[in-house]
Amino acid sequence: MDDDQSSDPIATLVIQAPGVVLMVMAEISVDRPQRFMKLSRAHIHGATANEVGFANLKTIAQAVLEGMDLDEIIIEGGIRTTGACPGHIPRPFRFTRQIRPDPDA
After folding, report:
1. Is residue 4, in this structure, part of any structural domain at all?
2. Residue 53 lies in a domain
3. Max CA pair span of the chain
4. Per residue, what are the HEC states of 8-50?
5. How many domains does the chain have?
6. How far apart are CA 105 and CA 42, in angstroms?
7. Are 72 and 36 in contact (CB under 8 A)?
8. Is 8 a domain residue?
9. Number of H helices, E strands in the chain
10. Predicted confidence band at 31 (pLDDT cuts at 50, 70, 90)?
């Protein structure tokens, strides 16, 4: 988390992925008993349009789910100020944890 660029209730996360550094700003809530995280009013900066792509975003989400031991992440975008359809709120993204086969089975 980037404390210098965060101000409650908005948190700023810096995510380093191969070939790109993303800055994610959002209101983040985690419900541990329900194993759920929600990012509201999210903005993602640092990559050109469609540079990261949904497949890579899904890979990042899976890493977060595994690392935080959660089952689901919902990302609700903030109102777009630039780019495609300014003033529009993008549709939410939902990521669920992949169930991996038991290697001992």
Report:
1. no
2. yes
3. 51
4. CCEEEEEEEECCEEEEEEEEEEEECCCCEEEEEEEEEECCCCC
5. 1
6. 40
7. yes
8. no
9. 1, 5
10. very high
How many residues in the chain? Answer: 105
Range of the domain at 60: 28-96
Instruction: Indicate whether 16 belongs to any domain.
Output: no
What would the pLDDT profile of 37-60 be if each residue is shown by its tens digit? 999 999 888 767 667 778 888 888
Residue 66 has pLDDT above 80, yes or no: yes
- Burial status of residue 59 (CB atoms within 10 A of its CB: 0-12, 13-18, 19 or more): middle
C-alpha closest to that of 41 among 5, 10, 82, 81: 10
Both tokens of residue 14? 């810096």
pLDDT at residue 3, as a whole number:
54
